[in-house]
TrEMBL record:
InterPro entries per UniProt: Cyt_c-like_dom_sf (IPR036909), Cytochrome_c_Peroxidase/MauG (IPR051395), Di-haem_cyt_c_peroxidsae (IPR004852), MauG/Cytc_peroxidase (IPR026259)
Chief location: other
GO molecular function: peroxidase activity
Location(s), subcellular: Cell envelope
Organism: Pedobacter mendelii
Protein name per its UniProtKB record: Cytochrome-c peroxidase
Annotated transmembrane regions: none
Record's keyword terms, sorted: Oxidoreductase, Peroxidase, Signal
Amino acid sequence: MYKGNNAFLQLSACILFACVLTACKKDNIVDEIIPKLTSVKLKAGSNFPAIDNDIDNPLTAEGIELGRLLFYDTRLSGNNKISCASCHRQDIAFTDAVALTNIGASGKKLERHTPALFNLAWAKNGLFWDGGSTNLESQAFGPLTSADEMHQNLVELETELKQVPNYVTRFKAVFNEEVKSANIVKALAQFQRTLISDGSKYDQYVRKENNVSLLDVEISGMNLVKAKCGSCHVGELFTDDLFRNNGIDDTYPDDLEGIYQGRFRVTFNLADLGKFKTPSLRNVMLTAPYMHDGRFKTIDDVLEHYNSGIKISATLDKSLYQNNGNVGIPISATEKIAIKAFLSALTDNSFISNKKFSNPN
């Protein structure tokens, strides 16, 4: 009887040990499938406004890196020749130096100028020149699927990326799902929110870093920009993130689904006719040509437009009446030199050379 009990106890102990061992193995498997992600909180210089984290797409180091891989991957286009970076070059603040590009899948010239990509973590009032998308995630679907841009079938894209073991592993780790288009745009958005430009000469000056000082001409230009341009290019972001009619046109045809009508195309509010997103002045000396259609080749062209070329229409921005109540912003030749000097001080060389934003391949 004693021997039987002993054998029973030994058998029970073995079974218990096996159960514990099995449970440990299962835990290890779970850990391997769903590794702990590294949460990231965006930071910017002390002169910048606070950043509100996106609760619907929280940033992780792994998600950001996945987004960077996708941003530079030509597989995101239907012909496997075009990546996001094809039109958004880091060396020129993620724009393309072309008025209206035609490198898309159809070869047709687009109707709008490629916008620069930086400080998008603060862009809360719609994206595209007319604010047609509400956030970075929805915005990405536009160029991905447009016949004149990347012309990608999203189902085919998912299938193609599922053939890449590295992507399969990364998507599972970041989103705990297989490759899906909804998570492709989430990863792209995570990477783009990290594109913070806050290291210009001006920034170092206002933060009193590295003993940096502005020249007298740059300080003069800074004061002129605040006085003459500050109603739209406001604050440390140098944009109000709003839509304004700056008088480059006085008629707004409804051709091409109203693409020339600006914000009106989205809201159908006549008060928005001819209004387009206010771009930031940061890195502006890198991002020529200018305006939503790239019509002005140089910053001198832009300044002269405000000085003498503004066209009057019902929705023209009231801040452009600076000439004794008449339309226009008087800018002398000397003032233009000073303004350009200050705009050059807004160039962020550390941003355009930051390896965290560059092609990982």
